[in-house]
Each structure stands twice: as structure tokens, then as C-alpha cells.
Amino acid sequence: MSHSWVRATTCYSPMGKWDSENTESPIHKHRKRYSATSIFGKRLFLDDYVEDDDQKGTKEKPILVSPDVQVLGERSFNGSCSSMVNTADNLYNTKLYLGSSSRDNENLPPKRIIHPSKVLCSPYDHNERGPLQPHEIELHKGIVALSKVEPHRSQVVVLIDKTTLFLGQLGDSFDAAGHVEAYVFKVFCRILFRENHPRRSKIHYFFTTLGDYFLGSWSSEEGRREMRRKALRSFNRAGKALPLHENERMFFLSVHGEHWFLFVVDIIARKFVFLDSYYEGNTPFHIGIRDLMINNFIKTWEESNLRGMGFRKFGVEYPNMPKQIGSDACGIFALKWMQTWASRNPLQRQFTMNDVADARVRFAVDILFSIHNTEDKGKALVKNFAW
């Protein structure tokens, strides 16, 4: 008796009830029939026009259209990734804004002045470099010591874009009780310009010449005309880096009665801001110069034929800033605020009188050993003295 498999009829056959050698399975038949069917698609939206490609067809050769499939368009993988990244960035940036959106207006930060917090809210805002290092202290000692003696005192040790600084000016400004000199501010403005160009920062820093002109610090009509010429030239040159009406803030270093303060034009907030480490806004010091500076600034802007910004409708703000002790730290506060102050940053840290001593050391070393300082002899002189 034979017990061989009957493959065509036995349900327990490994291949089922058909002969795999001579008979096609239903799946194979379906695939064969599907692959033999021609699909002609019609693109309704074209990415690029191809001259040799007859997109419309002709009477003799019409374009065949499948009723089931129509190709609406296509996008490369790189294009899809780029589009998704841009969309994600826009959504993320929108959620970061602190303001409220309105119809036809971009969601902007709040147009108000945010006062510095009483504590350090963010470890990356202000003192990210940590405490002073021993080499910084030694270099500062060398700067101060060499600035007291000739011929080193009269030696040019800083040269940045034709702006120079003598060792005596550097040492006297950052000594323990030094009063910061005007040339230090000029060099510092050049450093800030080089480190963060106005096209990126949307900020302009102006030399003390503009502040003097706004304060009316001239003794004769000839002197007034000369200061006016310099002011107009400063606006013109600054506009070549970034048109002034595209700025977010403009910093004007000002000294009145040997006291340094900052006059800030905040275009985004539509405010004239006065940053002062000693006098309040309601004191005779500011009452006597506030309108004078604002009016002279507006006059200079108009005489420069710049775009109207509605400055006469701007408000005036005196943020409640930490105050100095004594009369010599105003320049240090002004330097630090130039570097760190932002009108709408709720995470900025207060710079107080307790930080002034360390700031003197760091400012002196940073200015002298800046990568933008091309006067290497001054760097070598201080290094050789310190070690």
C-alpha cells in the first residue's frame, strides 16, 4: 500500500492544493496583472518648466490621464527637510517672544524697560567667566606699575582701527581709585564693534564726541560748528555699517561735571533711556540736561536727513540701576552697561559696587590683550614685567 503524498488533493501538503511547479499562485497572478497595467499620471502643478518637455501635449500625441492617479507635485528629500526645519524654527522663536501678537503685526518683545533682577537668574548672563584668575591679577599689577613711570607711561599700547591708547591712560583708568578717561571709552567702542558687528547686534556705540555735542559742551560758535560737523560725520559713518533707523538701540557715552552716564536711544521701546550710577532722574543734574540732550539728538538726526522715527513722541525712562559709592566708579558702571545692558532682558544680572574692583582688573587686561589690538609691543612689555 502506498503512503506517498497526493499533492493536488491532500490538505496537509506543505504547498497546499496546487502544484507549485506548474500552477501560479493567486498572489503571483495578481502581481503579474498589476505590473502589466500602465499608469499615466498628469502633473497639475509644475516645479520647473522644461523647454523640451511638451507639458500640454498635442492633438496627435495627447497626454494620457489615469482616472485613479494624478501627480499633484513632488519635492526632494532635502527640500522637505529644509521646509520642516524652517517651520520648527519659526514656531520656536514665536513662543520665545514675550509680547502678545495682534493682527497684521509681528509678535514682538514687550515695549517696556525690564529692571535688572536682584539675584543672578541665569548663570550664563553676566559672570560666565567666573572669578579672577591669578594671571589676570598679575597682568593688572604690571599695567598699573608700568603706567606710573616714564618712558612706558607715554608708550602706545593699544591700537584698534587707528584708535590709540597710552599705557598711562590705561593704568590710571583702571587703578584702584582711577577715573576712566575718554580714550578708554573710544577703544572700548571699537572692541564692541569688532566683536559684534551692528548688522548682527543691531546696536551702535558712539564716541564721547556725540555726547559732548548733545550736552552743548562748546565755548564758542566756532567750536559749536566744529562739534556739529563731527556729529554729522559720525552719523554718516555709522550708517555705512548699518542704517541708523534699523538699529534697536544706540548708546551715547556722556560726561557732565566729570560724571559718566549713558544716554540710550531705544528705538524698539520708543524710549530715551538714561543709565546713571549716581543721580536719579528727578535730581537737578538730569533735569538740567535731559531736554537739552534729547532736542540736540533729534536736531542732529534731522540734519543728517535720516528717516523720520517719531522721536518727539518717545518717552523718557530712568531705570532703577544700582548706585556707586564714591565718585570714581561711574566709568566702570558705564563700561559694564555698554557690554551687558538690555532693556527687555528679564534675566540680566545686577552689576553692583561689589563687582567694581574685579571689573577694573578684567577690563584692563581684556582691552590690552584683545585680539583686535594690533600693538604687540605693549602686550610683550606687560607680560615680561609680570613674569
UniProtKB/TrEMBL annotation:
Sorted UniProt keywords: Hydrolase, Protease, Thiol protease
GO cellular component, one term: nucleus
Keyword Protease part of the UniProt annotation: yes
Family: Belongs to the peptidase C48 family.
Any one biological process term the GO annotation gives: proteolysis
One Gene Ontology MF term: deSUMOylase activity
Name by which UniProt lists this protein: Ubiquitin-like protease family profile domain-containing protein
Domain Ubiquitin-like protease family profile: 157-341
Top-level division of the source organism's lineage: Eukaryota
Organism (species): Triticum aestivum
